[in-house]
Amino acid sequence: MPSQSSSSVEVVVQKLEYYCSYQERCHVEVAEKLRGFAISEHEKNQVIVHLIEHNFLNEERFAGIFAISKFHQKKWGKIRIKNELKARKISDYLVTKALKELPSDEYETTFHESAEKHWETITEKNALKKRKKFCDYLLRKGWESDWVYGKVKELEG
User: Fold this and answer.
1) How many alpha carbons lie under 13 Å from residue 1 in its C-beta half-sphere?
2) Residue 4, φ and ψ in degrees, nearest 5
3) Distance CA 62, CA 73 (A)
4) 63-103 pLDDT, tens digit each
5) How far is it, in rounded angstroms, from Cα 8 to Cα 89?
6) CB count in 10 Å sphere of residue 112
7) d(CA 143, CA 135)
8) What is the distance between the alpha carbons of residues 149 and 132, in angstroms, rounded to a whole number?
9) What is the distance of C-alpha 95 from the center of its chain?
């Protein structure tokens, strides 16, 4: 976004309220967006405080929604979700809380369904290469390694 030379704080607040209202945001994303505005550091901090006070910016809510949506939409495991939240500078406490909100029965079912579906799509004839492709895929998705290696043994057997 090009820097706006005469951005008043009110205009910036209005734009960031909209930015935060159509999709959950974390502090890092808002800070990045604020770089595009020609306002002082003090004014940027005022904008962030305003967004927090008016519930446009809430990292606990962001972490919870991020975790459940990445799990449902992209079939990510807890390790990938945790790493992605950490990359957004979400606290350990909020990461742990968000991961606990994932329904454990659905989590396990999703793992098994994703694993079995992916196993069927691998056309590799060489057993070792097939195993590697399968494991790499699930580990990249953030599933627990003991689950992945246990599942590959089950599917090969």
Assistant:
1) 13
2) -105, 115
3) 16
4) 999 999 999 999 999 999 999 999 999 999 999 999 999 99
5) 28
6) 12
7) 10
8) 10
9) 10
